[in-house]
Write a structure and sequence with these properties.
With 310 residues, the protein is an alpha/beta fold. It has one domain: Ribokinase (UDP-N-acetylmuramoyl-L-alanine:D-glutamate ligase, 3-Layer(aba) Sandwich), CATH 3.40.1190.20. It is 38% helix and 25% strand. The strands form two sheets. Strands 5-4-1-8-9-10-11-12-13-14 form a ten-stranded mixed beta sheet, sandwiched between helices. The protein has a four-stranded mixed beta sheet with strand order 3-2-6-7. The chain is globular.
Length: 310
């Protein structure tokens, strides 16, 4: 079983408009609310691929109640930890040409008791888990070393870990030695305080991230694919050219498909190919949508997987 933890879930409101232009009006064509958060998205992809996923998340307030109602139809088990404050509302605005703006709230403040309850809930699931995916931002009140502590607990129980976050939580989590870390280009740039413009810079960045403590690294580069590092070996997965409509959520699909494939086969380069295929296929869909296994499979064989020589 792959357990996902979403520490900062949200009601995702996706708004479709005719066009986005600076200092000009746009007309709303559609609006849809859905449950969101990196771990929820990852669990949805894994479940749709036929994998065994279990999602854990805090939920509070009126939005939290709506979130739980939405999740009743998800098809996979979800454990919610009650919290006092309302969960966040995130806005994604996208036009017919694929231009997208994403606006996220910071999230509710959690107290020590709520944080402890989440830790206990995760601990209870580790005995049945093969992977623990730690996904997304930490809400106010949660210490930046929270993910690092969970990685240490998972390692003691021989559970593999995937870290998909940003900022200080990413930096401290990597030091705890996760099985794999999956930053995108912007997250890697903030982590390393560099600008990644070229292929050679991205390759060097992936190696440097590994040197910080992660066993494996998947550096997502959007339409340019991903750089993967496992042990001493490196690969580059280059996707086919596609007509991208909405790239929002592609990184979540990449991380989920990677974990699903790696859990099945233990083959890092093939898992990297599956991840890039899922992210690429998802980018061709409107709004916050994720490619099915069939849609991902159609892209999988077109991903150019190349070994990078040291």
């Amino acid at each position: 079983m792959i357990v996902t933890l979403t520490m900062n879930p949200a009601i995702d409101r996706t708004i479709g408009v005719d066009r986005l232009a600076f200092d000009d009006r746009a007309y709303i064509l559609s609006s849809k609310d859905s449950p969101g958060g990196r771990g929820i998205n990852a669990a949805s992809v894994i479940h749709s691929f036929g994998g065994d996923a279990h999602a854990i998340l805090p939920a509070g307030g009126e939005r939290g109640s709506r979130f739980e109602q939405y999740m009743q139809k998800c098809g996979f088990p979800v454990t919610t930890v009650p919290v006092r404050n309302d969960i966040r509302l995130n806005l994604t605005i996208t036009d017919r040409h694929g231009l997208t703006v994403k606006l996220n709230e910071i999230g509710p403040r959690l107290d020590r008791g709520e944080i402890s309850s989440i830790e206990g809930t995760v601990d209870a699931q580790l005995a049945k888990a093969s992977w623990l995916m730690l996904c997304g931002s930490l809400p106010p009140g949660v210490p930046s070393e929270f993910y690092a502590q969970l990685i240490a607990r998972a390692k003691k129980k021989n559970v593999k870990t995937l870290l998909d976050t940003d900022g200080e939580a990413l930096a401290q989590g990597i030091e705890a030695g996760p099985t794999v870390v999956t930053p995108n280009q912007q997250e890697a740039e903030r982590l390393l305080n560099v600008v990644l413009l070229t292929r050679s810079q991205s390759i060097a960045a992936a190696r440097r991230i590994q040197s910080l403590g992660a066993h494996d690294v998947v550096l997502s580069l959007a339409s340019r694919g991903a750089i993967g590092v496992s042990g001493e070996s490196m690969w580059e997965a280059i996707p086919p050219r596609v007509d991208a409509i909405s790239p929002i959520g592609s990184g979540d699909a990449l991380a989920a498909a990677f974990a699903w494939a790696f859990d099945k086969s233990g083959d890092f380069p093939d898992a990297l190919r599956w991840g890039v295929a899922a992210g690429t296929a998802s980018a061709t869909l409107p709004g916050m949508s994720f490619a099915s296994l069939e849609q991902t499979l159609a892209v999988h064989d077109e991903v150019d997987l190349r070994r990078i020589e040291a």
